[in-house]
User: Fold these one by one.
Assistant:
Number 1:
Amino acid sequence: QVQLQESGPGLVKPSQTLSLTCTVSGGSISSGSYYWTWIRQPAGKGLEYIGRMYTSGSTNYNPSLKSRVTISIDASKNQFSLKLSSVTAADTAVYYCARSAGSYLSYYFYYYMDVWGKGTTVTVSS
Amino acid sequence: QSVLTQPPSVSAAPGQKVTISCSGSSSNIGNNYVSWYQQLPGSAPKLLIYDNNKRPSGIPDRFSGSKSGTSATLGISGLLTGDEADYYCGSWDSSLSVVVFGGGTKLTVL
């Protein structure tokens, strides 16, 4: 059974770069047709899609964050990572990594997150 | 402001049935599939429904999903106190090229 675990600093200073890693266990990050996704949730608020990377290397980022986000995969370590630059207090949130399935089915596109990490809290503060 | 619209809260008694609505547009729900997630207090979201009405292995059939036009509905029957959680709908938005979510609905089992 695939499991995901986020890791990284819990405190980041304003204007610096937030860096998180998601370690995949119980399966290979390179096997199957999955997207590897990052989602965040500010305290007491809803879910926000950050972006995803496909096993082929293609990426998709939320336009609202695109200029600051980079998602990458290190298949040798079975990990994928998130970098968010020039952070502000508005980037304070719980960050989740997730495995996602997505494709066209009968002309409609499906995309859902079927395995989630437990989340890691990142606070942006000096 | 979330792209998909959900009621902030719903409540019902144990054993009863509740429905949670999710309203969108032609660029998301109207032309793409809907998924639903359950977030228990202090926990990560968990996939409940995908492809509008399919349940992952291990999700009881008390949970159901449906879609009509640009709206979707999550149904939960035989409510248990353990069902108290926040529920989120999600869908791909073809215009924005992102996954969009509802603002979440807090279920209280009285």
Number 2:
Amino acid sequence: GAGVSQSPRYKVAKRGQDVALRCDPISGHVSLFWYQQALGQGPEFLTYFQNEAQLDKSGLPSDRFFAERPEGSVSTLKIQRTQQEDSAVYLCASSLKGQEAFFGQGTRLTVV
Amino acid sequence: AQSVTQPDIHITVSEGASLELRCNYSYGATPYLFWYVQSPGQGLQLLLKYFSGDTLVQGIKGFEAEFKRSQSSFNLRKPSVHWSDAAEYFCAVGASGGYQKVTFGIGTKLQVIP
């Protein structure tokens, strides 16, 4: 596709449920980023991949959060045992190395 | 640690009026600075960036920003606002390498009245 695609767009999860959020980057983009945007806040960095290598995961808030990009293209952000504070919009962005990052529309996660 | 302050949460301007959105940053070295715009239901779009060189940078949609090292500021300006500019604007700072691990401000929501 022409842009970064994220699915699902909306996800409602019961507390304690595991969720998986998908990001399809722009074809050929080696860098991929995940951000978390809570209501009324700016996006906060979670993790960064270059190809399949996760170079920075310092922003992941707990060990319940896990991201992977096994073939250097599609990435999945997994959240285990979701809690209410995980409710947020999860943004994915991709870029050529060192170039402008393009953002997807995000996945809005609501934990009830 | 790098940080960004956007002191104005909401701003209302009349269509055709000028606009200035404030941004102050904290970063130890030369910062990489960005302004993004987020419209409802849309992803973040880069308006402009400053990495080095001329401190007045031009962006898309008629926006510009000026880097002032002495004031640790990177304010966004537009001479004449259009109704379509209503959106949320985020200032952001990146470490060396530019787009990696960007820290965003809380955002300024712009309302444009006719």
